[in-house]
Write a structure and sequence with these properties.
This protein is an all-alpha fold. It has one domain (61-285): MetI-like fold (Orthogonal Bundle), CATH 1.10.3720. The protein contains 12 helices and 2 strands; from the N terminus they run αββααααααααααα. It has helices at residues 9-33, 52-59, 61-94, 98-113, 116-127, 132-139, 153-177, 181-189, 194-222, 226-232, 239-248, 253-285, and strands at 37-38, 45-46. The protein has a two-stranded antiparallel sheet with strand order 1-2. α3 (61-94) crosses α9 (194-222). The longest helix is centred in the N-terminal third of the chain and has 34 residues, at 61-94. InterPro entries: MetI-like, MetI-like_sf. The chain crosses the membrane at residues 12-32, 71-92, 99-117, 123-143, 150-173, 206-232, 253-278. Belongs to the binding-protein-dependent transport system permease family. CysTW subfamily. Pfam families: BPD_transp_1. Residues 84-282 form the ABC transmembrane type-1 domain.
Length: 286
């Protein structure tokens, strides 16, 4: 008698299938409800199928501005975050004194483990007109009047970049460890300076890791909600805040659902474009 063994892989993919089913069901409900209009109080939607909500999302100036500013700001903030994370990862991996890298790693880990609300209120205190940053700048004589960091993109960008930094740094640490130092040493032995070695040797080898990091932090930045709400003070809006207001302030679930669907498609398209450009750049450099 032959006993057939069960395939263990089906048990491994079961959690992923459950999560995938939940996500598909949620977005399926959003897509379905977006085809109706707002109902009376106590109801979610009424009427016949219509594309009115999508027309409002796509052809209203304020909606276009929020969507495009979310995509553009997320990309710029992600690039700034990576520019900060690259030297941090290099120091962590290649510091001559290991305790230096350990301290930086510990600081990033503490930041990563602290909650978003804690970080948001910390930046409110630091970036206020009488916050530590402005007091320090005034004390050093750099500025005469406080710099307005809050309720604009400057403060929101700083907070989001700080939130993204652990994601970028931890991802790049692995990429830096995979670099081959002998190639850089060979370039230095042939007379290349440190700057030349970094831009002509190190960065091309690090490029695949940079592109993966960019896609990761950009995806996280797109969903920013708390930092624009607290540090933006209503003057800086991202698409997540728009969806929240339409659901819990206006109680217009179909309009919020249409906004979410448009945002999801826009996010996927922008991520695909970034990945496409990244592959072209990698081929051009290699």
């Amino acid at each position: 008698m032959i006993v057939q063994r069960s395939d263990p892989t089906r048990f491994l993919i079961t959690p992923a299938l459950i999560v995938g089913l939940f996500i598909v069901s949620a977005y399926g409900y959003f897509a379905f409800s977006s085809l109706f209009l707002k109902g009376l109080p106590g109801t979610q939607f009424v009427g016949e199928l219509t594309l009115e909500n999508y027309r409002r999302v796509l052809f209203t100036g304020s909606n276009q501005y929020v969507l495009l500013s979310t995509l553009w700001a997320s990309l710029v903030i992600s690039l700034i975050t990576i520019a900060i994370a690259v030297p941090m990862a290099m120091v962590i991996v290649r510091a001559k004194r290991q305790w230096v890298g350990n301290i930086i790693m510990l600081a990033i880990a503490v930041t990563f483990l602290s909650g978003s609300v804690t970080r948001a209120y910390s930046w409110l205190i630091l970036l206020g007109n009488k916050g530590l940053v402005n007091l320090g700048l005034s004390g050093l004589g750099i500025v005469d009047a406080p710099i307005r960091f809050l309720y604009n993109w400057t403060g929101v960008g700083i907070a989001i970049s700080h939130y993204l930094l652990p994601f970028a740094a931890f991802t790049l640490i692995g990429a830096v460890r995979n670099l081959n130092p002998s190639v850089e040493e060979a370039a230095r032995s042939l007379g290349a300076g440190r700057a030349t070695v970094f831009w002509r040797i190190t960065m091309p080898m690090l490029l695949p890791g940079l592109m993966v990091t960019l896609v990761l932090v950009y995806s996280v930045a797109l969903a920013s909600f708390l930092f624009p709400m607290l540090l933006g003070g209503g003057k800086v809006r991202m698409i997540a805040n728009q969806i929240y207001d339409r659901m819990f302030v206006e109680y217009d679930i179909p309009y919020a659902a249409a906004t979410a669907v448009v945002f999801l498609i826009s996010a996927f398209v922008s991520i695909w474009l970034i990945s496409f450009v990244a592959k072209k750049v990698e081929k051009a450099v290699s």
